[in-house]
Each structure stands twice: as C-alpha cells, then as structure tokens.
Structure to design on (642 residues):
C-alpha cells in the first residue's frame, strides 16, 4: 500500500503545476521513503527534485545532507556541501562548511591532501582563521607526511600573529626532519632569535645555541655561531656556563670524527678559563686538545699563555720547543726562540742553555743584533772570551753603521787589554778601527797607550801627533804635542828631535809655561843645551822672563865649547842682569867671567863696562874694597889690561 502511495506522490509531483504543491509532495515522498519504505535512494531523488526546483530550500538540503551522512555517501555529501558553499556568503557559515568538508575528506575519505586544500581555501578567504589554524595543527599531529606543507602554511600565520612559541615548535619539528648541517644550524639560530625576542628569553636562546655547538656544519656557519654565543655569554656573565657547554659539545658523539671542531671548541673553553683566571683549568683542557690534534699551533700558543700565567717554566719550555718545531716560517721561529732563550736564562737560571738557544737564532738569522748582544753578555759573564771575541767580530762584520763598528772594536780592544792581556791584539783591533774612523780621538788615545805599554814609543808618538792634528781645542793640541816632545826626551832619548814638537807648542801657544819649563831643564843638559837654548830664548824674551833668560845664558856660557858663543852668552848675561834684573853685582860677575873668554883686542870694551859696573856697584867708596873678586882677580884684570 505504501509503495502505491509513493507512486502517487511521484505522479502528483510530476503532473502538478503548482510548484509549492510539488515541493510539499516531494518532501512527503522523501519522508515516506526514509521512514516506512526504508528507501534512501528514493528519498535522495525526492530531495534532489526539491533542490533542483528551489536550490535555496534549506530544509531539503539539510535533510539530504543527513541522509548522505547516514548512508556514508561521503563524496555526495561533500559535493552537496560545496553546492551549499556556493550559495553561502557569511564568513561564519563558510567556515563551518569548509571545515566540515575538510573533516570529511580527512576522516571519511582518508585524503589529507584534499583536506589541506580545503583548509587552505578557508585561510585564503579568512587569513588567520582560528578554526582553520586549529584544523591544521590537529592535522600536523596526525599526518607526518603532510607536516612540511602544513607548517609552510602555518608559519606565515604565526609570524603575522606573533605566535613565537608556535614558531619555535615548528622549528623544533623541522630539526627532527632534516639532517643537512647548514639547515639545522639555520634552524637553531632562528629558534634562538625567537627566544631572544621574548621577555626573559635570553637564557633559552643561550641554551639553544649551546645545543647547536654539538652540531657539525660549514666553517662559516660555525664561526658565526661561536661569535653569537660568545656575545650572549659575555653580555650576561655566563662565561662559566659557556665553558661547560663548549666542553660538553667537544665530547658529543656527533663530533667524534671532527677533530678540528673538537679542538676549536676546547680552544674557546680554554680561552674563557684564562679570561676568568683559571690558568690551571685552561692548561688541562689544552693538554687534552693536544691529544686530539698533537702540535696544533693555536692550542700550543694558548697553552703557552696559560703556563706563563702559572709560572710553570719547565712546562712552558717544552711548549715553546714544540712551537718552534711546528712554526711555519723563520720569523715566527725566531720570535719563539727569543722567548725560549730568555725563559731558560732568566726563569730557569740556565745561562749556558740560553747560549745554545741564542746560537740557534744566529743559525737562522746570522746578523741578528739581539742574539749577538745577548751572547756577548752571556759569554762575558762566564769569561768565555774566545767565544765573546768571535761574536763581537761577527757583529763588526754585520754592522753597516761605522759608528756601531767603532763601538764594537773599542769593546773588543778592551777585552784584549783587560781580559786577555793581549796588547798586540788590542793594537791590531784599534788600527782596524782607525781605518774605519781615522779621526776617532778616543781610539787614537787607546792605541797610543797600547803602543806605550809595548815600548813602541816612536809609533806611540806618531799616534799622538795624529791626535794633535785633529784636536778640537788649542789646549788639547798643546798637551798632546808636549806629550810627544817628552816622549822624545824620555824613552826615545832624542832631545833634539823633541825641539820640533816644542816649537809646534809655541806656534799654538807662545810662551807656554810647561814647554818653557821643559826647555829650561834641557838647557842645563849639555847634549840638548844648544837646541833648547835656541828655542827657548825668543820665548823668554817675548814674555819678559828675564831671570829664566839669564839662567839660559849662564848655562850656555858654561856648557858650550865654542869660546865665541860662550863670550856672547856672558855678554848677554851681564846685560840682562844689569838692564833687566837690576843686578849690578851679578852683571859684574858675568863681566869678570867674560874677561877670561875674550881675546886681547876685545878686552878694552869689557874693561870699560866692568869699570862702570864697579863704580855703580861700589858708589863713592873704593872700588877695590867692594870688589868681591879679591886681590887675585884685580891682579888678573890688570895683567890682561896691560
């Protein structure tokens, strides 16, 4: 009977001209089919007829959606929902429809990609829609294969909304998905940057970067990472925490095959230890680093610094030796050897060992001034004069500056003289010096003294004359000339030869008192009297030293073997005593002596002069009573007069 009723409903729906009546009959038919006849297909056809006639018929559409859902006709339901979507403009309603479609696609059809398409459509219409974001987050948890796509959609939304924690979660997930070192480091840095932007987030940023320390990666990326985490640690006083993180990263399983990175991390940890004053801890870390990479230059350099801070001189000595061995160029090697030499000498008190190190420097750089100066001091300190002389000669050969060569040769001459008592070697050294600096007065003086010490007086005199020629002052020149003159008088026994030098003295300083004094003594020596008198008389006359001049003439009268010269000397003596010295008596004595020296034809003037002197000396009293010559002298005089 109900089947006939259903047929009747169909007939009326097909024949009725009243649309409202058609819609009413079709809905009854659908309800009859669902309720009594249990014919879902017929009900669906009925609802379809209603929607074809009136697409906006909400009751029919909703009832049809339930039918599709009950009968699990998911594709039809999705299609129906899409039809609804075309006729829906409200954001809220469209959200509900689209999410319903997505849920059906994901849960009923198992098509996550189609569901993602639907949600993306919703988010394209309504950016940041909470329902759509929630759906994607739920799908990300359920569908691993679609996470890359899902997070690519979610990231811009999180960024736009400032949802930092969600962004961090996305990055953390991405870390689980990639093994590319560069990409992983980029993600770590990104996470750290997100944390740094949060209040109190610096500690989390530091920990994130600390995790990245244990990751291998390109050199430039690692360098940038190290710089960033160092900056954070120093800014917040987390150096000790960074040191521990670096050491943990160096031992991480991920880096066990990367010796370079492990050592780089330990180097940073050691540097922090030194910076905070833990040199002992730094040394332990660095020694471990050398087990990983023996003789690594940077590790040795920092260990050098740590051991110096600990004053561990023995340990430092070994490190310096290793650094010298691995140095790549001679310049670096020399710098290290200099430090080693000073350490051995000053820190360990082993000067002879230091000599060996300085010698190694000379083997590399033969003209090293520093090394040669140090060796000079060390050799001198222990009296190794042969070695000292060798190194000074080496310095002389290497010196370009004449002044430097001069100073070195003077030192060498002093060593020959004082340390080795080798005057001949001293003389040779000074002569070489003077070839380089012929007007060096100090060297000339030293040479003169050395020659004198060897009784080479004539050579010494020649050297003194050279000094006189370059003397800067008249006084100095005169003194040197006097020395030469006295050298001729003394050791050389050449008083006559000395006269030329006294004459030079007078040319510079007329009437020089010391020269005159010397000549006065020579005047009294028969061998030199003649030459000395000839030289000194003009000087005495010029300066009016009449008493000395009288002494010269007296000496000449006594020492000369030439009668005429003796007579002339007595005449001059008598004249000077009378005219210059106001000594009539002395003049008379000279005249009396002159009477014994002159010839008869020259007697008369002498007698007359003597007579006048006698009158002047005796005055009005008898000449005979005042004449000190006595009766014999008077008789002798008279006889000569007759």
């Amino acid at each position: 009977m109900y089947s006939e009723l259903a047929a009747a409903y169909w007939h009326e729906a097909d024949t009725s001209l009243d649309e409202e009546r058609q819609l009413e009959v079709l809905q009854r038919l659908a309800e009859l089919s669902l309720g009594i006849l249990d014919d879902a297909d017929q009900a669906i056809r009925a609802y379809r007829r209603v929607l074809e006639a009136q697409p906006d018929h909400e009751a029919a559409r909703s009832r049809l959606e339930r039918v599709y859902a009950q009968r699990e006709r998911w594709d039809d339901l999705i299609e129906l929902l899409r039809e609804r979507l075309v006729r829906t403009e409200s954001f809220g309603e469209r959200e509900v429809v689209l999410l319903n479609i997505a849920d059906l696609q994901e849960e009923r059809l198992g098509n996550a990609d189609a569901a993602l398409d639907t949600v993306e459509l919703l988010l394209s219409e309504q950016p940041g829609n909470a329902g759509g974001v929630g759906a994607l987050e739920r799908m990300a948890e359920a569908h691993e294969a679609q996470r890359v796509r899902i997070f690519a959609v979610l990231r811009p939304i999180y960024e736009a909304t400032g949802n930092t924690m969600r962004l961090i979660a996305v990055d953390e997930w991405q870390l689980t998905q990639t093994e590319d070192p560069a990409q992983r480091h980029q993600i770590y840095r990104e996470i750290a940057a997100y944390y740094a932007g949060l209040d109190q987030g610096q500690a989390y940023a530091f920990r994130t970067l600390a995790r990245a320390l244990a990751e291998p990666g390109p050199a430039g990326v690692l360098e940038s990472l190290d710089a960033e985490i160092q900056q954070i640690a120093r800014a917040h006083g987390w150096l000790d925490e960074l040191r521990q993180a670096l050491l943990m990263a160096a031992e991480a399983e991920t880096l066990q095959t990367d010796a370079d990175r492990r050592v780089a991390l330990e180097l940073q940890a050691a540097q922090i230890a030194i910076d905070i004053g833990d040199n002992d801890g730094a040394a332990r870390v660095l020694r471990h680093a050398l087990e990983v990479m023996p003789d690594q230059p940077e590790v040795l350099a920092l260990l050098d610094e740590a051991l110096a801070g600990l004053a561990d001189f023995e340990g430092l000595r070994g490190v310096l030796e290793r650094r010298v061995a691995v140095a790549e160029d001679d310049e670096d090697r020399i710098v290290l050897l200099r430090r080693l030499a000073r350490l051995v000498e000053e820190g360990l008190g082993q000067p002879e060992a230091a000599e060996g190190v300085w010698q190694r420097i000379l083997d590399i750089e033969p003209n090293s001034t520093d090394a040669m100066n140090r060796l000079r001091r060390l050799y001198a300190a222990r009296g190794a004069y042969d070695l000292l002389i060798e190194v000074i000669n080496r310095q002389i050969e290497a010196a370009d500056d004449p002044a430097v060569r001069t100073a070195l040769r003077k030192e060498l001459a002093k060593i020959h003289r004082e340390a080795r008592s080798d005057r001949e070697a001293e003389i040779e050294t000074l002569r070489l010096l003077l070839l380089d600096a012929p007007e060096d007065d100090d060297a000339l003086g030293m040479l003169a003294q050395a020659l004198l010490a060897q009784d080479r007086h004539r050579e010494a005199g020649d050297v003194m004359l050279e000094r006189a020629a370059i003397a800067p002052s008249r006084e100095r020149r005169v003194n040197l000339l006097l020395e030469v003159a006295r050298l001729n008088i003394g050791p050389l026994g050449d008083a006559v030869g000395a006269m030329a030098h006294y004459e030079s003295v007078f040319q510079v300083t007329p009437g020089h008192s010391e020269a005159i004094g010397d000549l006065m003594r020579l005047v009294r020596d028969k061998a030199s009297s003649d030459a000395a008198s000839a030289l000194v008389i003009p000087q005495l006359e010029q300066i009016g030293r009449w008493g000395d001049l009288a002494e010269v003439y007296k000496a000449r009268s006594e020492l000369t073997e030439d009668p005429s010269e003796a007579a002339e000397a007595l005449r001059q003596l008598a004249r000077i005593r009378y005219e210059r010295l106001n000594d009539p008596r002395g003049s008379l004595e000279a005249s009396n002596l002159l009477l014994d020296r002159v010839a008869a034809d020259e007697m008369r003037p002498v007698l007359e002069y003597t007579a006048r002197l006698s009158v002047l000396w005796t005055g009005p009293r008898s000449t005979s009573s005042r004449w000190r010559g006595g009766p014999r002298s008077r008789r002798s005089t008279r006889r000569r007069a007759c």
Notes: The chain has a mean pLDDT of 90. DSSP finds 36 helices and no strands in the chain.
